[in-house]
Automatic annotation (TrEMBL):
InterPro entries named in the record: AA_adenyl_dom, ACP-like_sf, AMP-bd_C, AMP-bd_C_sf, AMP-binding_CS, AMP-dep_synth/lig_dom, PKS_PP-bd, PP-bd_ACP
Keyword Nucleotidyltransferase appears in the UniProt entry: no
Keywords per UniProt: Phosphopantetheine, Phosphoprotein
Entries under Gene3D superfamilies matching the protein: 3.30.300.30, 3.40.50.980, ACP-like (1.10.1200.10), Luciferase, Domain 3 (2.30.38.10)
GO cellular component: cytoplasm
Source organism (scientific name): Streptomyces solincola
Region (Disordered): 157-176
A GO molecular function held by the record: phosphopantetheine binding
Protein name per the record: Non-ribosomal peptide synthetase module
Chain ranges of the Carrier domain: 545-620
Length: 638
């Protein structure tokens, strides 16, 4: 076994000089090809090859293309025309893949939507994107209550068996790939946070996606691989998870648990033989700290969303020396990844580089006047080439501001990221020129949160700052100036804010302050604000009662995850700065220390020490009863 591992390590551990040869020179796909054409080509060459695994059900390439073709025909008969923007509201499943491909063959632009997002935000996104129809699962469409036209899809039926599903039943011909959208046609509209309080819909063309993922040179994906699909469809990383596989004849493995724990991810990877996965940087750091067994199965891991720390990267590389670890960088406006770097042990002495341009992108480090800066000096990163988005849906003024023509350089996107170029043009990331921050891989504009806070009753003004945990993870803190009258409780404000914003944009902590300090120029002094304690406490909570033994055990797990003392049974995990990723940490630690398996949804539904302790006690009693049921003597006693 050790000899096999050594051979893996020798085969994969190449210098970045050789890696640069693979990265440089643009994308590797056929000229002019789009994802629908590539998938259809694989279906013609190997119709029986595995395309999608969704639990115990599978779709071959032939079945996938047939099911998507049938849906395309249905959409056309329903009035969908080339260029229409169509919302997609389905749980992560094989149907997500079938529906996206069907929308593209009907000529539509796919606008992924998330049932977990607040309805006002979804409605605003639909308006900006110009959605003419939303297709999806009937129950989700009903609960979303969208005002526009909807069309229910037979979720599960089309994914379960392509031979007996709607494709075969309809008799619809498989679409001619020559009729697929051309490269400049829209593929997706993906929404990101907006500094003015309005999310931005990034319109991504087909040529940008295919340019990155067809025969990629920055990561190994072959017909023998299986790529894990575990991100929300509204997160642009899902583009890599699904279409890096299908553009190259590989298989997509759908994570069947909608909110997977660390253990769920490990089981999925092991059970289905996953070889390639994308992990947000924050998730990678957590799995690295646990030496997760996912790394013992995977061959290639792409990490992105935030700055990659050298220590956990080195620990993973040394523990799993065969692993191909790639640090990917790129705003949604440049289609998932604009640069990438194969991480080696030597890269982990300091900040891990973000690498060189990939897939036909170009990178330019410019000063404030738009002039190139010398290697080694800091400047702002501008991205160009064939990977750029068309711009922002319904926002021509913003498109003109951030996508500009530069003499001799062509059309460029201004990222706002500060970088420097080292030897060989390898880029290193040094921060932002503005207040934008990444929270667990999601772009967050503090201005959007401040705008939402100011709309709340009894809030006069607000500002959001960012602090860092001991592990370097970004954490949002909202500072609220109340209106005259009763002081609002931070917990209540947080609940109201959660009804307006998706989870990554809800601050970990809300502080009530008397005023916002200003700089000499009249702007909010965020540095002083972040250092100041809350001016008032609105909770008026009585002294805590002693915790019982199970509650104390839960509180100790919380304390490690949150990095703060927890002494009350009614302490709220979310109000103390907890979020979905830290809830995964809590679930994993409770499993390791107390031997109980708790679902992430259950932990987040009742996020107090007392409620978590009750879940632990119930799980322990259930396990005890099951053991007694299997014990002949126990049955005899009854």
């Amino acid at each position: 076994m050790r000899d096999t591992d050594d051979r893996k390590a020798r085969a994969l551990t190449v210098g970045n000089e050789r890696y640069a040869e693979r990265v440089d020179g643009g994308g590797g796909g056929p000229a002019g090809s789009t994802l629908p054409e590539l998938v259809a080509g694989h279906a013609r060459r190997a119709p029986g090859a595995l395309a999608v695994m969704d639990g115990d059900t599978v779709l071959t390439y032939g079945e996938l293309v047939a099911a998507a073709g049938a849906l395309a025909g249905r959409l056309r008969r329903h009035g969908v025309r080339p260029g229409d923007r169509v919302g997609l509201l389905v749980p992560r499943s094989a149907t997500t893949v079938v529906a996206t491909l069907g929308l593209w063959w009907a000529g539509a632009v796919c606008v992924p939507l998330d049932a977990a997002h607040p309805r006002p935000r979804t409605e605003a996104m639909a308006a900006d994107a110009g959605i003419s129809l939303t297709v999806g699962e009937a129950k989700l469409l009903e609960s979303a209550g969208l005002s526009g036209p909807t069309l229910a899809l037979p979720v599960g039926e089309s994914a379960a068996d392509g031979r007996s599903g709607p494709a075969a039943a309809s008799g619809e011909a498989v679409p001619d790939p020559l009729a697929a959208p051309d490269g400049e046609a829209g593929a997706f509209i993906m929404f990101t946070s907006g500094s003015t309080g309005r999310p931005k819909g990034v319109a991504v063309p087909h040529r940008a996606v295919a340019g990155l993922l067809a025969s990629p040179r920055f990561v190994t994906v072959t017909e023998r691989d299986r790529v894990l699909f575990h991100s929300p469809a509204t997160f642009d990383a899902s583009t890599f998870e699904v279409w890096s596989a299908l553009a190259n004849g590989a298989a997509v493995v759908v994570c069947t648990v909608q909110r997977p724990s660390f253990e769920d991810l490990a089981r999925q990877v092991e059970r289905y033989g996953v070889t390639v996965a994308f992990l947000t940087t924050a998730l990678f750091h957590q799995l690295a700290a646990r030496r997760s067994r996912v790394f013992s199965v995977l061959r290639s891991v792409v990490v992105g969303g935030e700055a990659l720390a050298g220590r956990p990267a080195r620990e993973v590389l040394r523990a799993f020396p065969w692993l191909e670890l790639v640090n990917g960088y790129g705003p949604t406006e440049t289609t998932v990844f604009a640069t990438a770097h194969r991480v080696l042990d030597a890269d982990c002495d300091g900040p891990v580089p973000i690498g060189r341009p990939v897939g036909g992108a170009t990178a330019h480090v410019l000063d404030a006047e738009g002039r190139p800066v010398p290697d080694g000096e800091h400047g702002e990163l501008w991205i160009g080439g064939g990977r750029l988005a068309h711009g922002y849906a319904g926002r021509p003024e913003l498109t003109a501001e951030l996508f500009t023509e530069r003499p001799g350089l062509g059309r460029l996107y201004r990222t706002g990221d500060v970088v420097s170029a080292g030897p060989g043009g390898v880029l290193s990331f040094h921060g932002r020129t503005d207040d934008q921050v990444k929270i667990r891989g999601h772009r967050v504009e503090p201005g959007e949160i401040e705008h939402a806070l100011r709309t709340l009753e009894r809030v006069d003004d607000a500002a959001v700052t960012v602090d860092r945990t001991a592990d370097g993870e970004a954490r949002l803190v909202a500072h609220v100036v109340p209106s005259a009258g009763p002081v609002p409780r931070p917990g209540v404000l947080r609940e109201r804010l959660a009804a307006l914003l998706p989870e990554p944009l809800v601050p970990a902590e809300l502080r009530v302050v008397d005023r916002l300090p200003l700089t000499a120029s009249g702007k909010v002094d965020r540095r002083l604000l972040a250092a100041a304690p809350a001016a008032r406490s609105a909770d008026g909570a009585p002294p805590p009662a002693p915790l019982d033994p199970v509650q104390r055990a839960v509180a100790e797990v919380w304390e490690r995850a949150l990095g703060r003392e927890v002494s009350r049974a009614d302490a709220d995990f979310l109000a103390l700065g907890g979020h979905s990723l830290l809830a995964l940490v809590v679930a994993d630690d409770l499993r390791e220390e107390l031997g109980v398996e708790l679902a992430l949804a259950d932990l987040l539904a009742a996020p107090t020490v007392a409620a978590h302790a009750a879940l632990v006690q119930h799980a322990l009693l259930t396990a005890h009863d099951e053991l007694r049921a299997d014990d002949p003597e126990a049955r005899h006693d009854r």
